[in-house]
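Morning run. Coffee first, then this:
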Amino acid sequence: MIELERVPELIDPVMVAAFEGWNDAGDAASGAVAHLDREWKGEVFAALDAEDYYDFQVNRPTVWLDNGVRKITWPTTRLSVVRIGGAKPRDLVLVRGIEPSMRWRSFCNEILGFAHELGVEMVVILGALLGDTPHTRPVPVSGVTSDPDLARTMDLEETKYEGPTGIVGILQEACTHAGVPTVSLWAAVPHYVSQPPNPKATLALLNRLEDLIDIRIPLGELPEDARAWQLGVDQLAAEDSEVAEYVQTLEEARDTADLPEASGDAIAREFERYLRRRDPAAPSAEPGDGSYLRDTSSGLTRPPKRKPDPEPGTDPEPPSPDEGDTPDA
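And here it is:
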């Protein structure tokens, strides 16, 4: 039985989760949850037992010194809670960890146990994948769900994916079968510049999360980091004619595919987002007052000679959306 004595009653809580590893190209998803935790000063209230879920030869613990005393940090998944203040306060339960090495069903059941005890109304799982997308264009973010009713009411895509999956897909299906509304948001990261961090993809995930659960997220220096990242990749690409030509090919393909999106509806959605971020009456991006818990103890990859295989290969990141989380092309 999960006991959460340190956590007060939550207000309209939404759980937001991300896991390092196969589902986290460019660390974009885990970076988004880390940003939320940092900006709203999240306080950890629980951590899963590392020995239950991790192979320490795959995810090694780290040793560090604390005032001359040696300590060990074990790889695990931690849960924290943040309160979004303002006229309509609400809470986020943040789940951030590493894709488990074993016992995935038990892992998901434990996460669901926390969601049930905390009264979580929706679970949003963030992911990032490698794709044929140019770094010079807006990062594509897909919102998908296994629930046809949720897909219809929230204007999401109902997943039709079949194939290998990761913890994002397993957790999404576990939540759906348990009757918990669940959405996965996937950002596409350029496969030719896949090394982390990718602040542009992190920013895109946070923008989509804002729209999905109707909150305002303090972005801090993230927009400037995203601009600096793109400028740096621009400079690297300009130094290699083969890469520059490949990027141009991706740009042309992307622009052609996006022509239908250059519609009045798409422009209106962007304008509404702009107004919402400027509206002082919208839910505040400032953290709640005081302590929340009662007890407070780069380089470029050469472009491929042919189109990459759509199935996951030896690269730990899949080149196309996955886990029951991605829309059909």
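The radius of gyration is 20 Å. Good start to the day.
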